[in-house]
Amino acid sequence: MAGEHKEAVELNTPSVKKEGSEEKQGSPHPSKGSGWALSSGRLLSGLFALNLLFLGAALVIGGVFNPSGLRYEQSLIFIALLMGLSLLWMFWYLIRARWQPETAPHTDHHAGTVLMKGALLLFAACSLLLHLFKMGYHFSKWECTPVVKALYPFIEALFVIVQTHLLWVHSKDCSQDQKNFTRLGLVLTLTADLLLWFAAVTDETVHLEMEVEKEEGVLQDTYIGQSNVSRCQCGLDPACASFKKGYKVLFPFNMEYSLTAGCMLYVMWKNVGRRVEPHHPTLSGKLRLGASKIILGPFLGVVALLSGICIFIVYQVKVGSAAGRQLAFVLFYSYQLAILPAMSLCSLAGVVICKLEEKALDAGLNPTRSLDALLLVGAALGQLSISYFSLVAALTTGLSGLLQSLDLSYSLLSLNELLLQTLFIIEGLHRHPSTGEGGRVTGLEEDESRRGAGGGYGSLRGKEGTQQMNLEIKAEVASSRLNWRRRVLKEISAFLVPTNIMLWVIPAFGAHPQFENGVGKDFYGFSFWFILLNLSQPLGVFYRMHSVGGLLEVLFTG
């Protein structure tokens, strides 16, 4: 008896070791040693990126607020150097992936969706066109343009082309070879994108401040001398004026490109060394609208978009004149007070339906979903801060005037809409697309069929027919209930997409009513209010565009 037990233990020991070794190789949760290596690699690359980011940010801010101290365009040289090193790493990664495809055997199917790649390609095309306008603009003012500034668009254009190709082909990669070097290259490129975005934000800040000071007649020689203003402006040159206008129109798309590329690079960095099961579902990349026709949501959304564009054009025309300024603000706030409650109600209905649908949460290890939620919440902080500060200013100064009352109402509705829509998008994105009431009934039906085929209940023909009929009735009821819920979710998402596009267009293309109406500026002072708006509004622009991507994914996969 003891001998048999000993023999059984000896026979089972190799299989246990083999099973343990296989689990260690294929498990997505590595052992303590490999886990420390994974954490240390991320830690070192993260610290490397933070140091580069803070150094670059200090140079950019120094060039904005103390141009005489940084007269050799050090910030542009530093960012150009980062882009050059990133280009070398990207060429290495592309060549290695072409000749050694086995270096990334695992794929994150949630990363690099069709919607994300489409947005990246659109912003990349607009960015390249912007760089062409910038090249023409600098060439037309060659005598007063530094050499670094003239060469900068060429380097950035090459950087955009190579990075777009890398992200289009390899955004789903979970690299398993040269992990530390891959992480360093990814954070180097990510830092370059973030600094490009930050430099664009501060550059736009300087231009806007100069325009405001010109309007108030207090233009100072802080950024550029008066002699240089007359000598370096386009004047009557139509080509130079056209290049400058094209650059200003396409400016928001370049900022969005940097943030979109940075998000995709961050997911690639998180996926280095990650092992994903080969049978993981690939639903996030498929566009499925379902059999039901979505009509009401797109129609109302397009109506809101077209009316918003008309009001935006009228606002831009009227706000510059003293006679039409009041009308411009009334039109803008009237549109916002009409569209924001509708968006809030739709988002609230979407949250309720997501709760009633009882889908399982996709709670697995998913850097893309975690990043989506983090970006939505983080970007919403920009508009939230503006709304709260505007709320305090309107309440403190009193509601004696029309603008104060409109600004207060707009701030309250904007807060409500931001919170509800963020909650709706996060709920929609974290719902598992392959489970739900329909899936639960289907599983019950399959279980009953297996029991009927193996005997028991299936031995009686009459009872089997009754059970089958009951199951069909239950499936039909659950399917109809699920269909109308999914259809309402799609209608809501289809309405919110164009409305968010319109709310992206308004600040992205130069409309700043909360600065121009003077409520917050009079209460907090010019400097503080100007800094707050120009740091928060780019986040609001990114929030709207990122919301469009999340809503499209809810629309197609819900």
What does this structure look like?
Helix 12 packs parallel to helix 17. The chain has three domains: 34-276, no CATH class; 297-434 and 482-558, no CATH class; 437-476. The chain is built from 17 helices and two strands. With 558 residues, the protein is mainly alpha-helical. A two-stranded antiparallel ribbon has the order 1-2.
Using brief descriptors, characterize the structure shown.
558 residues; 17 helices; 78% helix; 3 domains; single chain; 2 strands; mainly alpha
Q: Brief overview, please?
A:
With 558 residues, the protein is an all-alpha fold.
Topology, pairings included?
Layout: H1 2-26, H2 32-65, H3 74-99, E1 106-107, H4 114-140, H5 147-170, E2 173-174, H6 179-216, H7 226-232, H8 238-271, H9 296-318, H10 325-357, H11 367-397, H12 402-429, H13 437-453, H14 461-508, H15 513-516, H16 519-524, H17 526-557
Antiparallel strand pairs: 1-2
Classification by helices and strands = mainly alpha
Measured distance between first and last alpha carbons: 60 Å
| Secondary-structure element pattern, one letter each | HHHEHHEHHHHHHHHHHHH
Please work out how many helical segments DSSP would assign: 17
| Beta-strand percentage range | under 5%
Categorize the overall geometry.
globular
What is the makeup of the main sheet?
2 strands, antiparallel
Strands ordered across the widest β-sheet: 1-2
Radius of gyration: 28 Å
Averaged pLDDT? 75
What is the helix content?
Answer: over 70%
Count the beta strands.
2
Counting structural domains, the number is 3
